[in-house]
Structures are given as structure tokens and as C-alpha cells.
Amino acid sequence: MHGCHADHQERPGKGRREASLSLEIAEPDWADLPVLARQWDLTAYDAAYLQLALKRRLPLVTLDARLAAAYDRASRLSQRR
């Protein structure tokens, strides 16, 4: 999984903005991934994004309704702990 952060910088003489990205590679917890996928009825791919967002306590932005609902429920549960 990759996290990214965009920094916008003006290009001299061009008047355009150009983004530079800072990437970080994050390995999922492979052993827990199938459990998380079954628990929230997600694909392993979606469960990896859910796992990363929950682990880092970051918002998850997605257009996937099932993944968004799983994130909402799982984040509420993790806040109770």
C-alpha cells in the first residue's frame, strides 16, 4: 500500500502548479487480512485499505459504499476501545 502527500509548487515562468508526491510503502498485516475481509464482507484488496486507515487512525476516502460502511462501523468500534 502506498500513502501519498501532494505538495503544489509554482513553476517559474509557467504560471502552472505542479504536484510532487511523497510516497510511503506500508505492508499490511497479511495474517489478519483474511479475517478482516470476512468480518466486514470485503475483498482482501479493500480490507487492506481498511486495515491501513484503522491502524493509522486516518480517514478513508472512497466511493465504494460497502468499504465506506465497513470503515464507519469499524472505526466506531475501535474508538470504544
Overview of the structural elements:
- The protein has 81 residues and is an alpha+beta fold.
- The chain has one domain.
- The protein has 3 helices and 2 strands, in the order ββααα.
- It has a two-stranded antiparallel sheet.
- The radius of gyration is 16 Å and the shape is elongated.
- The protein starts with a strand and ends with a helix.
Q: In this structure, how is the largest beta sheet organized?
A: 2 strands, antiparallel
Shape: elongated
Spatial sequence of strands, sheet with the most strands: 1-2
- Stretches with pLDDT under 50, minimum 5 residues: none
- Strand/helix succession: EEHHH
For the record, give the distance between the C-alpha atoms at the N and C termini, rounded to a whole number.
26 Å
Derived from helix and strand composition plus strand pairing, the structural class reads alpha+beta
* Average pLDDT, all residues: 85
Oligomer: single chain
**Overall domain count:** 1
